[in-house]
Amino acid sequence: MTHYPQIASQLFNRPLLAHRGTLEQYARAMAPRIFGGSVTFGGEWQAGLIGEPVRDAVDFEGNPSYTGPRMIGKSGVAVIEVEGALVPKGKWIGAMCDATSYEGIHAQVGDCRSNKDIRGVILEVDSFGGAVSGAFSCADAIHQLAQEKPVLAILTEHACSAAYLIASAATGSVIPKTGLAGSVGVIMLHVDYSKAMDKAGVNITPIFSGARKNDYSPYEALGDEVYKKAVAEADTVRDMFIDAVAGYRKGRITADALRKTEAETFMGADAVKVGLVDEVGDPIAAANAFISEIGRKAA
Description:
Blueprint (H helix, E strand, L loop, with lengths): L4 H7 L4 E3 L1 H16 L34 E2 L5 E7 L1 E3 L11 E3 H13 L5 E8 L1 E3 L3 H14 L2 E10 L1 H7 L3 E4 L4 E3 L11 H7 L23 H25 L6 H6 L4 E3 H7 L4 E2 L2 H16 L1
Parallel strand pairs: 3-6, 4-5, 6-8, 8-9, 8-10, 9-12
Antiparallel strand pairs: 1-7, 2-3, 10-11
Helix pairs in contact: 1-2, 3-4, 4-5
């Protein structure tokens, strides 16, 4: 039985750029790793960012787990996949958890910028979002890449919350008719075990120094003052989210329009009408058209 306190620290009592509908799935997938259970997981022991150690990461069989952006033949187009739950670091959580790390995306963006043979990039996005930590710097890196090479975000169905933040940084975006985009907002989770502890006959007495040290304790109900503090933090992150998207999509959607969505998600044509994405299209057809366009420019 293995516990993952780093994962727990990202999931609870912190703002999440995640769609409400994915929180239950996210928590259910992580629960055995966080609270203990019959889970085994090998490799990926380092959890640092400096020096991009993700490039040297190996899977539980000792094979390299970082392979760089996926190339589409000799088209000059690379694909960066943004799928599943989005997490800050990729060496202590990975494909086994249906997740993509901002760390891994960063490394792939760096490869796309430095590789002269890559003339265009497709972001394949299918995610309901995830952690705040690392999301904004990841989106900024993609936006920088988009200043140097065409970047097309193709939704292969969903780009919500943090995933939408990342998609919005691309040069352009395509959504299928049934796809969802948006959820430009912030949500937080707090777990209160106090009644469960009472039922079990367990009394936990926190001993601490510093009035705010015990904020968000899972062994007592969330007080009004702490709740207000949490809402204020969520509002701050939401403002950052709105400002970032409005900057990336300048001329296509304003900060005021984004705020008025109230973190709603929009399907297909409605997402285009609001200004969240650029056009409705079939993902495969959109990719083929992009590849052809990159080929024409290279000719």
